[in-house]
Amino acid sequence: MIRLAKACDEPSIRTCAEQAYAHYVPLIGRKPAPMVADYVAQIAAGFVHVATDDQGGFQGFIVFYPEAGYMLLENVAVLPSAAGRGVGKALIGFCEHTARQLGLPAVHLYTNEKMTDNLSIYPKLGYVQVAQRTEDGFSRVYFEKSLD
């Protein structure tokens, strides 16, 4: 099940981000942005959704919100213990579905160039690389998926 995050989900979200992104710290040389994000503010803004299992146990989360003319998928993370079960794919699908419901024609996202798993996963989900640049000290690769 995917639902809107509540304030009480913040510790689980933060733990998930720490666990999901920890192995990238040595590659990037510092914590990636999702490890230091302000999840309290993002939850309060209604930008965070969580995935739970059949018993309501936390599995992962996604952060997305509408921008000018598209949906920005800012972050998706799954607990390592839930990896490989389609949780991330379901969360991304939920983001795309929400964008369609809002009449947005595309989903945009970015990932760090050192997160090579993501660089191969997103094209398999229909995302096309559209740019690569450095922002906030991170080398980012930008993807877009048209929803029409």
CATH architecture: 3-Layer(aba) Sandwich
Individual helix count: 5
Provide the succession of SSEs.
EHHHEEEHEHEE
Question: Order of strands across the widest beta sheet?
Answer: 1-2-3-4-5-7-6
Number of domains: 1
Give the full name of the CATH homologous superfamily: Gcn5-related N-acetyltransferase (GNAT)
- Gyration radius (Cα, Å) is 14 Å
Q: N- to C-terminal separation?
A: 26 Å
Fraction of residues in helices? 25-40%
Described by the principal axes of the CA atoms, the overall outline is globular
Q: What number is the mean pLDDT?
A: 95
Question: What is the name of the CATH topology?
Answer: Aminopeptidase
Q: How many beta-strand runs? A: 7
Mind telling me the CATH class?
Alpha Beta
Q: Biggest β-sheet, characterized? A: 7 strands, mixed
* Low-confidence segments: none
- Strand-pairing-aware structural class: alpha+beta
- How large a portion of the residues is in β-strands, by DSSP E? 25-35%
